[in-house]
Amino acid sequence: MTAVAATAVPSVTAEHQLALSRAAERIAPTWPLDRWIAVNPWWGLRDLPIDRAEALLARRGGGRLTLAPEAYRQAWERGRIRPEELRAAIALSNASLDEAALLASLERHQAAPRVLASAWELAGEDTAPTTDDAFEAVAECCAGYFDHHQQRWERDTTTPLYAWWQDQSRHDRRLSTTQRRRVAMLPDDASAARELLLAELALPPEALEALAHILLLRVNGWASWCQGLAWHTPHAATHAGIDQLLVILLAWEWLGLAELEAARRARWAAQWEATPAPADRDHEALWCWQAALELGYQRRLAATLATPTAPHPAPSVQAAFCIDVRSEPLRRHLEAAWEEVTTQGVAGFFGMPITHSSAGPERDLPRLPGLLAPRYRTAEAPPLAPLHRRRHRREASRQGVRHAKYHALSTFTLVETTGLAWAWKLIRDSRRRPATTPSPTPLEGPFHAVGGEPLTTAERVELARGLLDALAPGGDAAPLLVLVGHDSASDNNPHHAGLTCGACGGQGGGLNARLAARLLNDPEVRHGLAARGAGLPEGTHVLAATHCTLTDRVTLHDTDAVPAALTPLLARFAQALEEAGQANREARAAALDVAAEDDETRLAALARRGGDWSQPRPEWGLANNAALLLAPRAASRGRDLEGRVFLHEYHPERDPDGHTLEALMSAPMLVANWINLQYYASTADHQRHGAGNKLLHSVVGGHLGVIEGNSPQLRIGLPMQSLHDGNDWRHEPLRLTVVVDAPRERIEGVLARQPDVARLVDHRWLWLCRLTEAGLERYTAGGWRPLD
């Protein structure tokens, strides 16, 4: 490999640029900790069938999508997978295997696939640390560049990522003098450097795409962060996105290639021409085992949904909960506690696409699904000015201590002079006190996100109408309609937002519920809705509430505005909520290892889990999620779905044109898929797609993400403690089963119009089923087939 010269380099074709773009698109985005959402880490591979995607990742060193053979063996021996389910999986996949061959495959050693190698990995065959040095250097560069909170030396925020790396490389002692000189000779502009590097590497487009993907996978956490900027911080992606990171990785590959002797350089070039080996029988067998595991769950789900239930009276209260799987058992217990309550499932941001400004130094946070952009803004009301000042003073004090700790003159004196002063805090925090939930504060807004103007009456009516369309109460709205958001509470937990919500930027839904309730109770909005034929009955009052998923207590908000005529109804509903919370706490206690003889003790123990700064498992979050049901509540009411199903209200008879179903399959269904495969990936291949051990975490940049131990690699996904109780997994990795109550042609119409939805279904990233009077039928390449 020649050194960079001042002469012109061969032109790079458009196909080369497209190859780099395709490689970058293979990387899924990630969000910051305080705006955390669950992400399907294989989103960029949805254009491939799931087994082919796994083969591609295996060849490029990116892990596996099936479980280890031992997991399937245990499921078989415990009866979790039955012979009939194994035979059904064989038939469904058209595998050339039988039961004996599948069992034998679990006993054989699974040969490691032949993996494509970067130049640094070839160079490190004799000296293993070399590879780590190369990719850890890139990770350290990203950690330094993106940290705007913890580092002592502030960088120029207008400097692009590539230019910053090039400047920092002058002082990188992992590079030899010659290598540092070569980096300095690269163009300062990332685009010009990319052109030169592609010409120097001299790979055809197909090989270049594979190389670029390999390099990104080696720093997958930081690659995901850079990719995520285009999703949640677009203005930063232009100078710090994945394209900039890819130029740095190509430069490192160029440096590594120059270090290879002729034989290894020839191996590096030859590997791109090798034809990938077809999937072997063991690979095919593991996918049959995974399908059998999922078919077993689908059979149990079908049997549960087929269980007859008794009719119930017209509701006095309708309670709309988030589709979050943790809402399902509480809804079931609530309806059992009082049969005059009917619950509904809806997206937990309640149709309010807002970002919220708190009183204090905290930055504005979106409160809507991460795949959407906020259109409106709300703020805490002006009477909170004293609180605003207190929060600013508290944060200023914390920053003062942070800066003092790193000052050269205080390095050896700060602890000695202030240690005793901080002893009280250590003692206080060591006491297991209940986690506190902030009280609701007065709200202003909504305002337009741009310009800050209040919404007109027509705009507020349209916003309210969107929510009512999702709730679909029709003319049967009860006197009391309650919007129940959810939240969680835990201390000293960087992944707290992931327990709060898996979709809405890690923010609780109580504020959205309050805003939506105020909107639906507004007389002007009511009048506008009635004029459009979409209003609520005159006597219906809308109330907001928040369900704490840690303690299962539901807090009712703004009850002083409830009309006096509805006070007895409100009191009875509050009693039913208390009874439901008690029943749900009792059911959850064993899984959290909470032993208590009465509910008061049990409630106190759960609250202490959230306030205990040393508790790595305050709750299990959305672990064990497995299905999404788009159907009327009547299809699931009274059935025990084990807290594993996302429930969204859908009435097929009210949606003849299929517009509502299309919105549900292209939004809530995609969100559920992201949550489901985030948990699946973090369990099936935790080393690559999980966040590691909470006990070893250090937060990067205040809210950016976590690293584990001394490694600078950004860890994405879920921590081990969110999935494993120390003895066994608490999440069973199954692909999402989506069950829809709609005619076949309506579902197929959505697939025809929504390519991303069709890819997920056709390529087996999820299962699509239809609810019929005879049971469930599954969508397959050959058409709809009965589940049995």
UniProtKB/TrEMBL annotation:
Principal place of residence? membrane
- Which cofactor does the UniProt annotation name? Zn(2+)
Organism the protein comes from: Halomonas shengliensis
- List locations, semicolon-separated: Cell membrane
Q: Which HAMAP family match?
A: DabA
State where Zn(2+) binds.
C322, D324, H486, C501
Q: Which InterPro entries match?
A: DabA (IPR018752)
Q: Which family does it belong to?
A: Belongs to the inorganic carbon transporter (TC 9.A.2) DabA family.
Chain's role: Part of an energy-coupled inorganic carbon pump.
Q: Where is the signal peptide?
A: none
Q: Which GO terms describe its molecular function?
A: zinc ion binding
Outline the subunit composition.
Forms a complex with DabB.
What membrane topology does this protein have?
Peripheral membrane protein
Q: Which UniProt keywords apply?
A: Cell membrane, Membrane, Metal-binding, Transport, Zinc
Q: What is the recorded name of this protein?
A: Probable inorganic carbon transporter subunit DabA
Q: Name one GO cellular component term.
A: plasma membrane
